[in-house]
Amino acid sequence: MRLTLLWTDIMVWVLLAVIVVWGSVMFRSPQVKKQWQNIFRAPVAMASAVVLLFYLCFTLLDSVHMRFSVERSPTGQSVTRHLSYQGEMVSLLDLLFSHALAHTERTYSAPFATHEYAKSIKVDAKGITRMVYRPLKYVKIPPEEGKTADILSRSFRAVAIGLLASLLLIVLHITLGGEAPFVLKVRRIIRGETVLPWRTAYLTFTLLFVAFTWMYLLSYHYHVLGTDKVGGDVLYQTLKSIRTGVLIGTLATLVMLPVSIVLGISAGYFGGWVDDVIQYLYTTLNSIPGVLLIAGAVLVMQVMMDNHPQWFETTLERSDLRLLFLILILGMTSWTGLCRLLRAETLKISQVAFVTAAKAFGVSRWKIIFRHIMPNLMHIILISVVLDFSGLVLAEAVLSYVGVGVDPTMYSWGNMINQARLEMAREPMVWWSLFSAFVFMFVLVLAANLLSDRVQHVLDPRNVK
Amino acid sequence: MLGYILRRIIYAVPILIGVNLITFILFFMVNTPDDMARAQLGAKQVTPQMIEAWKVEKGYDKPLFVNPKAPGLEKFSDTLFVQESLKLFRFDFGASDANRDIASDIKTRMGPSLAIALPTFFIALVTNISLALLLVLFRGSVLDTGMMVVAVMIMSVSGLFYIIAGQVLFSKLWHWVPISGYASGWEGVKFVILPVMIGVFAGLGSGVRWYRSIFLEQINQDYVRTARAKGLSEISVLFKHVLKNGMLPILTGVVVVIPSLFMGSLIMESFFGIPGLGSYTIDAINAQDFSIVKAMVFLGSVLYIAGLILTDISYTLFDPRVKLS
């Protein structure tokens, strides 16, 4: 086994490291700490954060890729010297769902179905051809029980396991946090007397964890969300799509941030020709219809990738490279909005007395920018990061539909919707791909929207009473 | 006023040149003039002479940015970039890669685009503002909070789902309207209804929230208190005072998109098979027809800048304090 990180994997882990470092630096200041406590004092913010963390976990699980050696010696003695690696890379999530990958059916099947969705020709022993619903290859039900009974008994077991495991984790979390005796802490949490609404957080966590355990354990015996056109498990596809969505939502903003911060502050602080040039730049970019600019850039990227096949070895690397370019393009086309906001705010702050005083004391302009202006822009930056996230996740679906999104071989909600759309004419409808993409996307975007509302409410100075 | 508008139009020129530069660079990173000639002449038996002849005929034989052979100022003017840009400024879009006249295509496709975009725009405007006023009237009540939750939920669903759900429910299950297609005149109403309704609904969440926040900002102003103190009813305070004063921030966001309505909606049109400019653009993107994309980018930028100018003009109409100079 060899760890192989894709470009986007590296970016994800760098992003995580940046957030952790930045967070630990920021949290030294008591005001910032208080502000964040304020944000999470609302139960809705806490619940959204738990949901987002859950999605983040899947992203991280899916961002550790490795290759397995082709030959494994039966005795267990490793042949370390001449290992040859499989072309295919798998992530931790793939390993977790290796059973779902192995259980690929022939074609469409509904959630929890035992037979295929459409009839197909079958020649029986007597040589008579008939149209029958073929049974699925990997769904086996013990004949003495019915399907419903089987699902129920398995669900019961899965939910019980999920509840137990989540309870265990919560107990662990409670014991690790704080000095007070355990029983007292539990009582406070149950009564909702904690500073942060931990009760909501634990409830949300339990709900998500149990739902996931249920789907995961049942996916060994059924296709919980059905199968797609070529028999792939839809649950697996939806979970793989999480990474694509979260990556586009976070990394594109990360790419755009330095550009808009540097340009916005310089335009606002220095003024003059610097301001003119930067204003010209963003007015020009802004006046091009967004989708067209992205489409144009993506077309260029496609041609460039076709001309340089040496950049990638496997199809996964290829689609990953395309995702990376798409993120860069989205970042480069979306910095204008934040840049304009930052310019206006910098202009405003530069006139305020404390900046004038700093200037009079002879503080250098870089120090003024970093010590006096930047901290006062943080709320705008933070709000726009959270606000952009949901917009970008939704944009991915639209771009994939237009044909300028992620690689068609990549799992993404946009691609799932796109494929499902082609099957709309079928009678009865193939609804499960669409449904799964809808639910997973909706939960993510809703959580992000609710959190961003809360962040905006707390950080926006106009709301300070 | 007229002088101001003229100056704004002159300011637009460098921006449009910038837009052209961006599309030009993107375009020629993908296609060299030789590639274009080959695509136009067909793949079979194209001799280098034929390519050269085609390039001379279409004017693609010139260098991209600097022409060292030309004398004086023509070093820069006698180049592909300047020639192509001038063509665009005259709204001469030329022929698409599939050899159709882009300008006439745009003219015929503008109608269907407007047939969807205009009703969507105005119905959405009226619904959003009335709903927002209603919520402001009942602010802080269960209705207000409930509707705000619904608004966030509406916002959190991808527009694609509304379209698919609408088509399945209204066309496939209930057969109220045809699933897609277009006809001009009154015949077209049955095709237009569903996309318009879906367009209005999809924008409801963010729209109502935005207008509501604008009105709520007004409601705490002194003039509102004065109006109430005069004994005006809450409804006439809202409609006569708050709505009027909220007009200015509303105009900033609304007027700028009016000219861009011509461009149509990419997604809506291609889902409902409406032969407008949006589906035209999508088809061009899918066929990698860069000439059309280039023309649409230029058109879109012109319309956007027109929207900015219109916004400024509309300010003077609604706020007598604003004077353009």
In short:
Chain A is mainly alpha-helical. Chain A has helices at residues 7-26, 30-40, 43-61, 92-96, 98-102, 147-176, 182-191, 198-218, 234-270, 272-287, 290-307, 315-333, 335-350, 353-360, 365-402, 413-422, 432-459; strands at 2-3, 65-67, 90-91, 120-123, 129-132. Chain A has three domains: 2-105, no CATH class; 147-218, no CATH class; 234-463, MetI-like (MetI-like fold), CATH 1.10.3720.10.
Topology:
The complex is a heterodimer of chains A (465) and B (325).
Chain A: E1 2-3, H1 7-26, H2 30-40, H3 43-61, E2 65-67, E3 90-91, H4 92-96, H5 98-102, E4 120-123, E5 129-132, H6 147-176, H7 182-191, H8 198-218, H9 234-270, H10 272-287, H11 290-307, H12 315-333, H13 335-350, H14 353-360, H15 365-402, H16 413-422, H17 432-459
Antiparallel strand pairs in A: 1-2, 2-3, 4-5
Helix pairs in contact in A: 2-17, 3-8, 3-9, 3-17, 6-8, 9-10, 9-12, 9-13, 9-15, 9-17, 10-13, 11-12, 13-15, 14-15, 15-16, 15-17, 16-17
Chain B: H1 2-30, H2 33-41, H3 48-58, H4 74-77, H5 80-89, H6 102-137, H7 142-155, H8 159-173, H9 189-202, H10 204-219, H11 222-229, H12 234-254, H13 266-271, H14 277-286, H15 290-318
Helix pairs in contact in B: 1-15, 2-3, 6-9, 6-10, 7-10, 8-9, 10-12, 11-12, 12-15, 14-15
